[in-house]
Amino acid sequence: MDSKSVYNNYQQPPMATAPPPPAPYGYPLPMHIQSQPPAEWSTGLCGCAEDVPNCCVTCWCPCITFGRIAEIADRGATSCGASGALYTLIVLLTGCGCLYSCFYRSKMRGQYYLSESPCCDCLVHCCCEHCALCQEYRELKHRGFDMHIGWHANMERQAQGGITPPAMQGGMTR
Questions:
Q1: Do residues 62 and 85 lie in contact, with contact meaning Cβ atoms separated by under 8 Å?
Q2: Which of 81, 102, 117, 139 could join 122 in a cystine, given CB atoms 3.0 to 4.6 angstroms apart?
Q3: Measured between alpha carbons, how far is residue 153 from residues 72, 114, 136 in Å?
Q4: Cβ atoms 54, 67 nearer than 8 A
Q5: Distances (CA, A) of 147 to 113, 133, 171
Q6: How far apart are CA 90 and CA 97, in angstroms?
Q7: What is the phi/psi pair of residue 33, to 5°?
Q8: Predicted TM-score (pTM) of this structure
Q9: Where does the chain cross the membrane (predicted)?
Q10: CB 133 within 8 A of CB 69
Q11: pLDDT digits (tens, 9 = 90+) for 72-125
């Protein structure tokens, strides 16, 4: 048998299934989540009627809403004040806070395995910055966070009161 016939007879094994979705930010997804489609957001992009006070704050000072979201999404690694100040600085220098805030939408989607809807994260923030921030804020509230007290106080409240922790994807499991 010559080398040409060996090459022609070689067949690659067929792929059994599509590869699993990539792990968000280095956290492996549990197997039961990998096989499911992403979850939907708890409210729509234009659901501001559910939380009018936050929509007003976001309209006039989006750095406050962004800072609160960033502190929870970063699990307390950055403070609300520092994130809000950086957001304000980016807005003052570039006029586009969406350059920074769209990354936190992606981070939140990865943590909670949310769908990328209604379109990609950067486009949502570039076209509807205030609505996107309000939606993310409402999502975290629906997941059990008191957005006014920050990450560390939420964790202390959870530990003291026996409150069920907000569902977080990733991390270590048994």
A1: no
A2: 102
A3: 11, 25, 19
A4: no
A5: 20, 13, 22
A6: 6
A7: -85, -35
A8: 0.73
A9: 84-103
A10: yes
A11: 999 999 999 999 999 999 999 999 999 899 999 999 999 999 999 888 999 999
Integer Cα distance of 161 and 37 in angstroms:
33
* 101 vs 37, residue with greater confidence: 101
What pLDDT digit, counting tens, does each position of 80-93 carry? Answer: 999 999 999 999 99
Amino acid (one-letter) located at 159: A
Q: By three-state DSSP, how is residue 170 classified?
A: coil
Q: What is the DSSP letter of 114?
A: B
CB 41 within 8 A of CB 139: yes
Whole-number Cα distances in Å, 62 to 43, 92, 173 = 19, 13, 36
* Beta carbons within 8 Å of 9's beta carbon, 6+ residues apart: none
pLDDT in tens, 129-171: 999 999 999 999 999 999 999 999 999 998 887 555 555 555 5
Cβ neighbours around 59 below 10 Å, total: 13
Locus of tokens 């004040």? 81
Give me the residues paired with residue 39 across strands: 114
What contacts 80, CB < 8 A, 6 or more positions away?
64, 67, 68, 70, 71, 150
Per-residue tokens: 149 = 């007290």
